[in-house]
Write a structure and sequence with these properties.
This protein is an alpha+beta fold. It folds into two domains: about 40 residues; about 180 residues. The protein contains four helices and twelve strands. Strands 1-2-3-4-5-6-7-8-9-10-11-12 form a twelve-stranded antiparallel β-barrel. Strand 9 and strand 10 form a beta hairpin. Helix 1 packs antiparallel against helix 2. The longest helix is centred in the first third of the chain and has 29 residues.
């Protein structure tokens, strides 16, 4: 939506300057420009529908593990987290400056631009993934993890290329001297999760915008694994 509005503003300024300096005005070009704000209204309606689905999500009968609905990756709309049918909390994306939201909205890969996430759990814990050095453009962005204001971990990413094409997408979450490795290839939507090379969980898009994480056993750090998977999806859009 922001991209359409920016195109309209740029085009209108161009038409105005052309009329001022050259005295030329074409009604057809103005009518074409008007299509941009009309299109932005249509995009907003679709986005609003997606916001509402994220916010009101409840798991279905076949969704038994950690699950969420992540259709919108740009707005600050609250999204739901469930473990089976038990609601465990909410999360949202946030920006330090309003214009950073506009930049993210206009980019092809919004997850790379100014991504910060806040998780609020039913037990009272608040966890924040805060981007490192937002002023710099990172090919492989990084985050610091805070729980209730205390730094507890770090996240780094690495994308593997072959012949200029993306081969694998990797996210490494460091927590309590352990490394949790999230990996997904360009083929399929599954994400495999390892702890110090030991396979712990498989995550996947079930259908539509519903994403699920299934652990091999019961782990104390399951909430952390789920948050890492949500960050992974914001970033790579698997």
């Amino acid at each position: 939506m922001s991209k359409l509005i920016l195109l309209f503003i740029a085009g209108f300024i161009g038409l105005f300057l052309r009329f001022i300096f050259l005295g030329e005005f074409e009604l057809e070009q103005l009518m074409l420009l008007i299509l941009f704000p009309v299109g932005s209204i249509l995009v907003y309606v679709i986005m609003k529908w997606q916001y509402d689905k994220d916010k009101a999500f409840e798991p279905g009968l076949n969704e038994e593990y950690y699950v969420t609905h992540l259709g919108d990756r740009v707005s600050s709309t609250f999204k739901q987290m469930y473990n089976g049918k038990v609601h465990i909390g909410t999360y949202q994306r946030f920006y330090n400056k309003w214009w950073k939201r506009v930049v993210a909205d206009t980019m092809k890969s919004p997850g790379i631009w100014y991504l910060n996430l806040k998780f609020s759990f039913s037990n009272g814990d608040n966890v924040v993934f805060k981007g490192v050095e937002e002023r710099k453009i990172h090919r492989d962005p990084e985050w610091l993890i805070y729980r209730n204001g205390e730094k507890i971990g770090f996240v780094r990413t690495r994308v593997e290329y072959k012949n200029k094409e993306i081969l694998n997408k990797n996210l490494y979450l460091e927590y309590k001297e352990n490394t949790y490795h999230y990996q997904a290839s360009m083929i399929g939507s599954q994400t495999q999760i390892y702890k110090n090379e030991l396979h712990m969980a498989t995550a996947d898009r079930l259908h539509g915008a519903i994403y699920e994480l299934k652990t091999n056993n019961n782990y104390d750090e399951e909430h952390l694994l789920f948050m890492g998977y949500i960050l992974f999806n914001y970033l790579f859009g698997k």
